[in-house]
Amino acid sequence: MSMGSGKPRRRLRQVGRRLALGGRLDRYVGWTFISCYATALFVVLGLFVIMDLASNLDDFLEPWEDGSTVSTAIIAAYYLFHLPFLLLQAAPFITLIAGLFTLTRLLGNNEVGAVLAAGVSGRRLLVPIFLGGLLAALGMVVLRESATTTILPIRDSLHYALEEKRTDRVYNVLRLRDLAGSHLRFGEYRPGEEGEMPVGNELLLSLREGNDWLATITADRAWWAERDGEWGLELHNGQREELSDRKHTTSIDWLGPELFDFTPELAQTYRRARENPLELSFLEAVNLGRRDPDNVVYQTLMQYHLTFPLANLVLLLVGLPLVMRHERARGVEGVAKGLLLCLFFFATDFVCRSLGVQGALDPLLASWLPVLLFGSLGVVLFDALRT
Hints:
Layout: H1 2-18, H2 24-60, H3 72-108, H4 111-117, H5 122-125, H6 127-150, H7 152-164, E1 171-177, E2 183-190, E3 199-209, E4 212-227, E5 230-236, E6 239-242, E7 249-251, E8 254-255, H8 264-275, H9 282-291, H10 296-307, H11 311-324, H12 331-357, H13 363-383
């Protein structure tokens, strides 16, 4: 009796070793997912670049003031530095396609049926794909935070040259705010290229302390400079006017961090927040949210940058069970349903995010509602998988 029961125990131990995380089955499914992800990445980003290039190429090739046209190298460099930000927009979609194609390949080779017949549940089979989705979500977070400070300034300078037909960047009406509530406005701001100091014209600073406005500072011109080991703004024709009962004006030629904590990086952050807030990093959205706590745009973006990477897992949770429910011959139908649900997710996400940015929906609800809604649907579908 004991000898007869020993063989099943040994078989169970062998199966357990084979199904340990990182075992042969996981490696096989994982490498299949990686190859499908690489293919989906190349195809999706390639389509994005082709569509963007087709809509903008005529504008990019318009002659500059001197009659010359932009070189092919500048256009190529722009799209090279733009790729990370296209990936941040399309990453959940790429992850879903890779997961669907991985499962379709397993179904096409009759490998899913063999795994199920061996007593391995469908949920366990999909673990490597979900781990891949988790890595993709973490990669989005790391890429957004790192690319914003390293790659984005280069891409912005190339994009400005292509759009404005000039290399010296000039931005009109730039507004900033500090933690004390003071407001700084430039009528014109030049961030400067490599080796050049940022310069602003028509400076107007309204100093605030608590609920009181203390003074206004104006200057014809200001530039980023160092004085006595401290960085700040050097002012040309600077004037400070006190707003007390006895108003008086004094000259001022230096605006240090004790008056306003200006930095060139902060100026560029506010510029991006005005032109394309979705390209702000999470830390930048937090920083701007601290300076302007009533701004619903920053509050929504703080939550959105946490929830959107989760779409890599949510879409897999919804899409993979739809493919598993179909036999090999009808796997394409499951893929089509998964992609259709993906479109519904992005549409819901876009509507909720827009309502949050406009203040029509609470920022917390606007960011988390699509994830919770489709995630709940995915849990129901995943729970009904064949075991």
